[in-house]
Design a protein that fits this description.
By secondary structure, the chain is of the alpha/beta class. It has 2 domains: 207 residues, Rossmann fold (3-Layer(aba) Sandwich); 71 residues, Alpha-Beta Plaits. 34% of the residues lie in helices and 29% in strands. The strands form 3 sheets. It has a 6-stranded mixed β-sheet with strand order 6-7-8-3-9-10, sandwiched between helices. Strands 2-1-4-5 form a 4-stranded antiparallel β-sheet, with helices on one face. The longest helix is centred in the middle third of the chain and has 18 residues. The radius of gyration is 22 Å and the shape is elongated.
Length: 300
């Protein structure tokens, strides 16, 4: 697959990684721009968490490199500190008080902005106490604020909204958008919640079986694919069901929802020639694109 050359600083070059002799990441190549939010999507076991943990240096690549400003993170501790990581669990911070966490982050990140963090604590009315008294939503929020206060050039977020109620989730998503745009920070966010991810990302990166299957924006994808709801008296005609450019998303009786990779006007004309009972275009979503990239298997 051809990877686009971006005006970016974070570069993943021929990255491969094995875990227990199983090749989890297979020759990955992509670049991430500052100031952009990139959604990392894929099934469980596709390699998402391994990729994120390798980017931040928790795991070492077997082959390839990860660099910022053409400086490899494995060769430069200062470069590694330009990437901040929020894992998919708050267990790391549970045992500490807010004061202790500030000390830990100041020691780990030389650019940690204590003043910015304290202001954020006040803004979100988070108590300056032991985190044992915090709710799950409060723990997630303070973990995110700590991560953003590192003033790192790139922030990696692994499932940051898991288990949150609707109110806290909305706050977290808005915080991510504001931080990325106002600080020109590159954000990579992994999530299974595709509908909410679609609202905040600038582009998506789809990983399947340890390989990058596609990297694109929603605008680019909607110019290539389109989604139709159609109905025919005897069901979807075989000429369309067997067409390799058509992915059948769902079928219920006479009605089918299909995604087409081809000339829109040409396919609509062909379908009109088959006397449809219903023919209408539907908005294309990130879940639809996941369905296409995953080979038409249902997303679970």
């Amino acid at each position: 697959m051809l990877i686009k050359e971006l005006n970016s600083l974070l570069k993943i070059h021929h990255l491969s990684k094995k875990l227990d002799e199983h090749e989890v990441l297979k020759n990955l190549n992509f670049q991430i721009e500052k100031g952009k939010i990139t959604g990392l999507i894929g099934r469980n076991g596709a390699g998402k968490t391994t990729l994120l943990r390798t980017i931040v240096g928790i795991l070492s690549p077997d082959e390839g490199s990860i660099s910022i400003d053409d400086k490899e993170i494995n060769e430069s501790p200062n470069t590694r500190r330009q990437i901040a990581y929020m894992s998919d669990s708050t267990n790391f911070i549970n045992q500490y008080s807010v004061k202790e966490l500030i000390t830990i982050y100041e020691n780990s990140y030389p650019n940690f902005n204590k003043h910015k963090f304290q202001e954020a604590l006040n803004k979100y009315k988070l108590p300056n106490t032991s985190l044992r008294k915090y709710s799950k939503g409060m723990k997630t929020l303070i973990y995110l604020l700590l991560t953003f206060s590192t003033d790192a050039k790139y922030v990696i977020l692994d499932e940051p909204t898991n288990g949150l109620d609707a109110v806290v989730k909305r706050t977290v998503l808005q915080l991510i958008i504001e931080y990325a745009s106002t600080n020109s920070v590159g954000v990579i966010i992994s999530s299974h919640h595709l509908a909410e991810l679609e609202k905040i990302i600038d582009q998506y990166l789809f990983i399947k079986d340890g390989r990058i299957n596609s990297i694109s924006t929603m605008e680019e994808s909607t110019s290539q694919f389109y989604k139709l709801q159609v109905a025919f008296e005897d069901g979807l005609p075989k000429i369309f069901e067997d067409d390799p450019s058509i992915t059948v998303f769902s079928k219920t009786g006479k009605v089918a929802i299909i995604i087409i990779n081809g000339n829109k006007n040409e396919y609509i004309k062909r379908m009109e020639n088959e006397n449809p009972l219903l023919l209408e275009e539907l908005p294309l979503t990130l879940e639809d694109l996941f369905f296409i990239n995953d080979g038409g298997d249902l997303y679970v």
